[in-house]
Amino acid sequence: MRLHALVDDLAIARAAVDGGATVVQLRVKDATTDELVERGRPFRDLGATFVVNDDVEAALRLGADGVHLGQDDEGADRAVAEGLLLGLSAWDVGQALAAERAGAGYLGVGPIWSTPSKPDAERPIGLDGLAGVSDAVGIPVVAIGGIDATNAGACVAAGAAGVAVIRAARDARALRKAIDGALAAR
Length: 186
Fold this sequence. Notes:
Layout: E1 3-7, H1 10-19, E2 23-26, H2 33-40, E3 49-53, H3 56-62, E4 66-69, H4 76-81, E5 85-90, H5 93-101, E6 106-109, H6 126-136, E7 141-144, H7 152-157, E8 162-165, H8 172-185
Parallel strand pairs: 1-2, 1-8, 2-3, 3-4, 4-5, 5-6, 6-7, 7-8
Helix pairs in contact: 1-8, 2-3
C-alpha cells in the first residue's frame, strides 16, 4: 500500500514498479470493459499488486488483485463477494466509515491538495482532513491529490499508509524514499 501508481500506459507502469511502486492501478477514463481488458493484460505480470479503476467486470476478467471504485461507482458488493481487494474513494470521515463498513480493504482519501489530474474533484482536505480520516478507520488510508516527492512524507506523517500518484508516477524512486523515510520516523 505504500505507493500506488495510477497509470494508463504500460511503460509508465513498468518504470513506476522499477522505482518502487507497490500497487499499479490501471486508470483509463471512458474506456469500455473490453478495452480495459485488452489494455490491461500485460499489467498482471509487473510484480506489483494490480488494481483496475472503476470496473469490477474488467478486474475479474483480468484476474486483477483488486478494483478501486469512486463514490458513484457500482459494484462494491460484487467485488467483495468475488474476493477482490476493494479500494473505495473517500473525502471525509463519514464516507470513510461507510466505505469501511461496505468491506473496503483500503481507502483512497483526498484530494489532499488541488490537482489538475481530476478537475471535478471535491475541494482539497489538506493534511488535517487526512489525519482525521486516518484516525477514524482501521483500514489502510492512501492519500491522493497533488502529491509528489516533496510532500508524500507529510501525508504519511499525517497517518496515511501510503500515497497514490498520477503525474508523479515516473518519480517513483524519490517518492518511495520520502514514504519510507516518513514511515521509519513514525
